[in-house]
Amino acid sequence: MTPVTASPGAHHHYWQGAFVDDEEAGRRLAGLPAIVEAALAVPLETETVLAACDALATALRDPAHPVSARLAEHIPTDGDGDGEADAAAGSAVLAELACLLGRDELTRKVRRELGSAAPQRLNRPDAKETVYEAWAPVGLVAHIAPGNGAAVAPLSLVEGLLAGNVNVLKTSSDDTLLAQHLLAELAAFDATGAIAERVVVLRFPSSRQEWLRLMCAPADAVAVWGGEAAVEGVAAHVPAGCRLVEWGHKISFAYLTRDAWDDPRTLAALAADVCLYEQQACSSPQVVYIDTEDAEEVFAFADRFAGVLATMPPPPPGDVPGTAEDAEITTTEMIARLEEHLGLTRVRAAADGSWRVLADVRPALTASPLHRSVWVKPLPRKQLIPTLRPMRRYLQTAGIAGSRPDIAELSRTVLAAGATRIAPVGAMTAGYSGEPHDGVYALQRYSRRVAVRADERFAATACLDDLTGPVEFPPPTGPLRDKDTVQELNAQVAAHDAELYFRSGGSTGAPALSLFSYEDYDTQMHAAARGLLAAGYDPARDRTANLFFCGGMYGSFISFFSILERLGGVQLPMAAGTDHRATAEMLVAHGVDTLFGMPSYLWQLLNEEEELLRSYGGIRKIFYGGEHVSEGQRAHLAETFGIEVLRSLAYGSTDLGPLGYQCEQSTGSVHHLHADLHTLEILDVDEDRPVAAGETGRLVFTTRARRGQSLDRYVIGDLGRALPGRCACGSRSPRFELLGRLGDVMRVATYLLNYRRFVAIASERLGHRGEIQVVLTGGAAREGLTVRMEHAAEGSAGGSAEAVRAAFLDGYPELRSAVREGLLDLTVESVDGDALERTATSGKLRTVVDRRR
Question: Are 126 and 568 in contact (CB under 8 A)?
């Protein structure tokens, strides 16, 4: 990250990556429309914003980080000269910003408000229709920030960035340069420069009307923070058709039922709400209503509550009212005391003026002068709506205390009257992640819902953006991680991020545990569903049997159930079983035409029940996962059962989820990368360096769709190579070809042998269409390699064992050398499919069984 520096003097405006002075800012403002058009030409990925915000949040959590030190200089102080108090206040501001800018917080906000972690992508909301929808930026958002909230201004602009907009922010001329420098630091964490292109921060007084006009004239939305006067001043510059998003001052109140207003705990909680922030928060109670029409009960409650307020700690030294505020408090209290003679009010106040309770028999909502000044009024519940509705524009939080039925009933009534937020008394100022603000979601106010309706040519296109360009993120950095390392990291995952537990099938070693949040699982299932559409699955017509293995925390069956659920496809969740006759009869009885499952299991099912399933003739599609299907097996399935589509339904792992998918133009083991979820590197087998273009190497994935976990640069254990050029399907998502697992590459008798070569020789030279397993054994003089070949399948290798052995030796020079040099004994066995070793959990064929250890 490059440190952010500002030029000396009056360079207090930040404009697209540089600090500029008044003259330059004025010149650029005149050309703002053209600047906006240029910036909008390149879409801003949500992930780009999330990554930069998270990096900034990480820096802000460390007081010793240079970013924290630079920003601390711009945090406003109360001016009393207490350096220690100012430092503590500054640390609190940075800590608050760090919390609000963290990835988890912002991702949850984006999901809650816009429905997904990548809301800008044109996906199909209904997989059965070629209609694409997305949230698009409105264009230019002008933010008019208040002068009393250090964090409000930059966070408002971050919301604009999350929606993909270009943003111009006005801060008060009395403000420090915190917003300018914070957003400059944010932009510096984005190596793409896309964030800087969308950020302009200006500091000028509201009296500078020409700048305000130039700021608002090209805007598509104007967000203004402040009271009615501030909103009216800005509204005059808002052009027709432009959204005016008002974040104005609000009034909040507490409402106590009869069984709550005498409860000491309720009164203590209410006093805490009043004193926290000295009523400066919009959610602080200014009025306390009690469910009565009796004036004496109002006065009696006011006396009791005054006694509780008197016990509260005094306000912090920096939170005393200013001259104007003090005058308003004095005037309000004096008028209330005068009205005591009319029997309308009763005042209870501290001798030192630190608090006051103003009891009033008139129920109309009245704003408080704040600083622990509280109105107490009667309001029977039957009068709630007529009393409060006239003030609905100003209502925000209602803190309700009462019985459970009372709270349920009163919540509905108060919401109908115009309040936007209900909270328990004692927690009125508290919020939760993703909470709507003043009755709306900010990101939706800064976005447009857009749609594209396409024709049948797009039936296999799940995301329209895949046809325009790949999703690109900064290259991954840091150490490589293997399965053991990830298993160690699992122990550090917080409990609230570990909501779903899966175990691997154990086909390549001991079963491993993988942890997911439900949000991440949902994101991955939607991605896999899009991949399945690209592979040729038709949710409107296909009738699918889910025949993956289930149980023991194994994820395949559950995952593909979830995928079909999101696609809205017809599904028979049967799961793999040992009674192949019963399974086949169920397929026929329910008209199944599409099978999901592991190739090993489907191969056994189809061949064992060949007579019944051939006579049925209804199976048209097979989508498989977890294993390779040889060319011989493909030919056999097409010729024998009339299979029209035989394609990988996903390439993935238990740890990382779906990694790749096949399209209708993909053959063999070629897949497209789920580029919106992962970044793929291909590294040399022996050295941690990228391979040359087209060469085979280790597949290394970095995933971004995981909450509370870092799965960067995960060496998954597979081999593959990148494929150049654009796929014939039109997608620009990167392609790669799987070339087996590292475990398929065996060091035997000083030679490196590949299981896939044995499969290819058996298929091409011998016409073998069954399964193959390689077993390695050790010996005193030499090692042993046994090729076990399934003989039950039609088209299995014919001829004597010697003839088959000779074919392997002839087709594999390295194998031939090892045998001739006396380092290896090669044998061939013909066996039943049931005799081949498989993993207990998933049913996968163990391609290489190494018994040398």
Answer: yes
650 closest CA partner among 486, 770, 524, 541: 524
Alpha-carbon gap, residue 271 to 451, rounded angstroms: 50
Q: Is the pLDDT of residue 339 over 80?
A: yes
Q: Taking the mean position of all CA atoms in its chain, how far away is CA 106?
A: 8
State the Cα–Cα distance between residues 196 and 186, nearest whole angstrom.
8
Contacts 24+ apart (CB under 8 A), 835-841: 835/788, 836/771, 836/773, 836/788, 836/790, 837/773, 838/600, 839/505, 839/506, 839/507, 840/506, 841/503, 841/504, 841/505, 841/506, 841/511, 841/549, 841/551, 841/552, 841/554
Q: How far is CA 776 from CA 81, 817, 834, 845, in A?
A: 78, 17, 19, 15
| Interatomic CA distance for residues 715 and 688, integer angstroms | 11
- For residue 644, the Cα-to-chain-centroid distance in whole angstroms is 37
417-434 b/e (C-beta count within 10 Å ≥ 16 → b): bbbbbbbebbebbeeeee
Order of strands, sheet of 243-248, starting from the edge strand that comes earlier in the sequence: 18-20, 13-15, 199-203, 166-171, 140-144, 221-226, 243-248
Measured CA to CA, the distance from residue 203 to residue 211 in angstroms comes to: 10
In the chain the domains, ranked by start, together with CATH numbers, are 13-210 (3.40.605.10), 251-424 (3.40.309.10), 749-850 (3.30.300)
Rounded mean pLDDT of 827-849?
Answer: 86
Amino acid in position 351:
A
The overall average pLDDT reported for the chain is 91
Alpha-carbon gap, residue 545 to 543, rounded angstroms:
7
Interatomic CA distance for residues 699 and 717, integer angstroms: 7
Output the six-digit token pair for 852: 């040398």
Map tokens 């009307």 to a residue: 209
Global pTM reads 0.84
pLDDT digits (tens, 9 = 90+) for 3-52: 555 444 468 899 999 999 999 999 999 999 999 999 999 899 999 999 99
Q: Cα dist. 789→331, 598, 614, 775, 792 in Å?
A: 97, 19, 24, 11, 9
Contact 256, 266 (CB under 8 A): yes
What 8-state DSSP symbol labels residue 45?
P
b/e 596-612 (16+ beta carbons within 10 angstroms → b): bbbbbbbbbbbbbbeee
- SS3 letters across 372-414: CEEEEEECCHHHHHHHHHHHCCCEEEEEEECCHHHHHHHHHHH
> Strand, helix or coil at 315?
coil
Tens digit of each residue's pLDDT (9 = 90 or more) over 151-202: 888 999 999 999 999 999 999 888 899 999 999 999 999 999 999 999 999 9
Partners of 778 in the β-ladder = none
Tokens standing for 659? 């990694």
